[in-house]
Amino acid sequence: MSARQPNRSDTGGWLIDRSRVEIFTFDGREIPFHPGDTVASALLAAGETLVGRSFKLHRPRGIFGLGAEEPNALLTLGAGATLTPNARATMIPAKPGMQVSSQNRWPSLKHDAFGLLDKVKAVLPAGFYYKTFMWPASRWMTYEKYIRRMAGLGPAPRERDTEQYARRNIHCDVLIAGGGPAGLAAAEAAAAKGQSVILAHARPSFGGGVHSMPQGPHRRWFRDTLARLEAMPNVRLMTSTTVAGYYEHELLTLSERVRDRDSAAGTAPTERFWEVRAGRVIIATGAIERPLLFANNDRPGVMLASAAQGYLWRFGVLAGQAPILFGGDDSLYPLARALKDAGAIVRAVVDLRSDPGLVAAAYVADGGKVIAGAMVAKAHGTKRVSGAEIWRIDEGTPHVQETIPTDAILISGGFGPSLQLHAQSKGALDWDENLGSFVPGTPNGANCSIGGARGVFDLPNAIADGVAAGKAEPLPERDQADRSTAPQPWELLNPTGGIRFVDLQNDVADKDIALAAREGWHSIEHVKRYTTLGMGTDQGKIAGPIGLALLAAATGKEVAKTGLTTFRPPATPVTFGAVAGGHLGEVGHAIRRSAADAWHESQNAVFIDAGLWRRPQYYPSNGATLGEAYRAEAAAVRAGLGLVDVSTLGKIDLAGPDAAKLMDRLYCNTMGTLKVGRGRYGLMLREDGRVFDDGVVFRLADDRFHLTCTTGGAGAVYQHIEHALQVLWPDLKAYATPVSEEWFAAAIAGPKAREYLAALAPELDVSNEGLPMMRLAETMIAGVPARVMRMSYSGELSFEINVPADWGGHVWAHMISTGNSYGLTTYGTEAMGALRIEKGHVTHSEADGRTTPDDLGLGRMASRKKDAIGVRALDLPALQESGRKQLVGLVADDPAAAFPQGAQVTAEALGDQPRPSLGHVSSYAYSSELKRMVALALLKDGRALHGQTVHVVSPIMGVAAAAKVTDPVMIDPDGERLRG
Amino acid sequence: MADIGPDTARINGFASLGTERPAGDLVAYAMPAAGQAAIRGDAADATFMAAASAALGAGLPMESRAAFTDGPLSIMRLGPDNWLAVHDVDAEFGVRVEQADGFHGINLSSSRARLRVEGAAARDLFSVGSRLDLRSHTFPPGAFAQMPMGNATAVLHCRDADAFDVYIARSFAESWLVWLRHAGLEFGLITA
Question: What is this model's ipTM?
Fold first, then answer.
């Protein structure tokens, strides 16, 4: 023992390297530790008993457990970008220089202002938020702000996390969760059969309970077994790895801490998240000790006896200098002896049994003090235990025996299996009356629980479990322990009437559960939510079983019938970084790029997302804004010549003897009559008659079509066709092949398009006769075979050029350089949108899933001479009646007026009163042709409104503009330009 | 009319990735496939199978997990009625298949970018982004599979114990490289 580590003993310490002393800081104070210590063991060694404040009442709290079940010692690691809140001190290996801070206290841990809450706890029972802060209801938002500040865990990091996270998928024959004795034995037995094995252990070193025992042959067994496993090529040993989730079909998730957050980055990630697909699963996650209820059982210094045992043997740390042990079975006595041997003054063993038996008698014979038939009824002290009030419970009325000064009360309420993974896999849970605990019942899936995780707590039997499970043989019969003569933890009296905590992390006391039961909450799921029992980061690993039994008692039901709450992944907290960190930015979200993308980027194009594609929205030459740029680009197309990259449009090759038949069923208009080499605009409907997608179709051969669809609709249209082929008409012989990736596509548009095309494709007859509307021709452009399709989206004379995408960049560059002498302007999606709005061409803004062909003014396209998907639905009365919204154009009266975003259309100007909406603007743009705003809108009976003045309004923005209702085709209604 | 464009003007989807194998234990480099084509038809139709076989110079494999490979030609059955045929050196291959009679071939020579990954850690590298069982006994040389990998869909073809061809849709290729390089950090992946 040293002055700086007053609780460090020379006994035990199997996991630490005593030859070295390092330092980390806790709330700025230096804490010495040995390599191998956890933050918790180092704090205990240094005498730091007070480590946190409780969630609701801000009561002082100390370290309570040894592992993942720890409810109290939640600390913040690091600062800034590497800050991690709510780390369990019991699971975090101490590292030199690490910065550790306490949470949920202000201004300091020792002097916490909100600690006053504890004084008024009588008026803060379960559900008090709901009851107290409801009036007036409008004030809840105010209350909430303060409640949130008072209650809570650590701070969320405010800076962007700079750590690297990785993911990995892996398959194995056997996954073993837990590397204690049972897990190690299972791994060796399975690996010896030649199976591929993953052994995952939450801590940095394997061994589990082996390390919580004195020196003995089991330590040799452990070292030898581990050495053999390390030499086996079919075994993957994973430490610092928590099995977090168990999903269907033996899919499990693992959270691996690869290195410390503050350590040198190198190429290793901080954490790695694994998805394991296992042939079978062996659950060897051990058992958890249950606490005992007494007044102030949450005071720093109260600790699970198994934790104290672990701290002694693993880390050479005494939980207290003068402890009291309190429980109801023989396991207390070896611990008492060990603590005594390690230098502690064991004040007494308080045994609930009135006749504790031989082991206790031997302890007494050796000079130990045993108080039998008694209980600790109350802990004294605030920031650390100072005494234990002992009551006799075995003779007559319970009465005070004595108050013994002590600095630690080590409690044991028996053990229960750690059920998380078994329960997550939806395995049955059986109530074991002897253990006073649920145990794994019939498994669901290829898994079994072994050792402590099924209620086998002694070492030889746990190892025997492991060997059998590893070999995939039946497990040995489990010893049915004699029913303990001691009362169960939830049966203890509360003679002093003080507060007894069930869930330490969430400040849930036994009376809260009783209150919930009185108020009618009888389902454990309801009680959980009403009281917050088991809702902390520890997921009620300690509190759950006790709370459940208390509810059963309060409602007069059997524990077995009360049941457990649902166990959900993760079993222990997993950082968001581990789950999502490997998916940020382009790493996780692909950007699709056209073959001309590099050129667009070189021109400083501003990109816009179109599905996964990025498309140039506009080219901001000379610092032009979006509005300036697209107006200029659109005007240049109408006046001269424009070029746009349309590679993103969906393209599908549909071929086969029945291709024409299928086309007629897919499109509401007739496609079967299309002649080879010609194209037609087509409309696909959904089953319910609404427009699904549109695009131009060219017939390449009698049995082959080239379909185009919208950029956003490409995937859905292909699925739709496959559905038709595979499900609706599997008898049709036709094959749909997506070819969007194959073709680079560019459209040229404007009065100069023909002479420009002639320059691009000197071998092509570009005359109106040689290449009329909706005709496809093949030619060479820049030495590359190209398809030229005459069609128009802009309303101008226009051609679309397709070349194999590997030559797309080359052809685009050629088009740009050739275009110089024709005043070529490249334009983006914004100008393209303006041009099509002027022409009344619809996109998914108009074909929004609600509109029929007739709504869009395309009713005549739906042929009744044949049957096609969705056509019959058009006869539904709802699609026929008046009042449906119809597509119209809107032209602003005032050239200076702006159409607001998301505008509604009303008959009257905006006034004091709400105006009924006629419909809404679906798309709008500035018309470079009409020199004012234009829009497409869907208005009730819109076609009857042509010529009338309406108002485009946004009451929210307080904007309104008068506009004339027109035909959707607002310029060149006869299409003279595109046929020119 | 020529069937394809000038070789010098052709830019494959992995434009930023070199084609020379770099030195290193785990490497990735572009290996553009000169010609690719989809072959569509009914495997039960003998006429179709014969026509495809005549055009390809090899029968269409019926196996759905193992590729047929003969020198520069590989054929993978991606679906019941869908084969991907790849030619390493013949740039006219896709056009030739498309123009052949008796079955539906579609030239897809520009559709998928291809790269080669070599190294003992290659399977682990792919397992960062693929949920498939890629252990050597379930995914031996010759095996192929189409799967989501990272941020895109990949066709993975095992060419040798530690050598793989990866096909990525052209428009996704550069983004997929971003994923690959990120995934490769911890394995020391060296890209050309």
Answer: 0.97
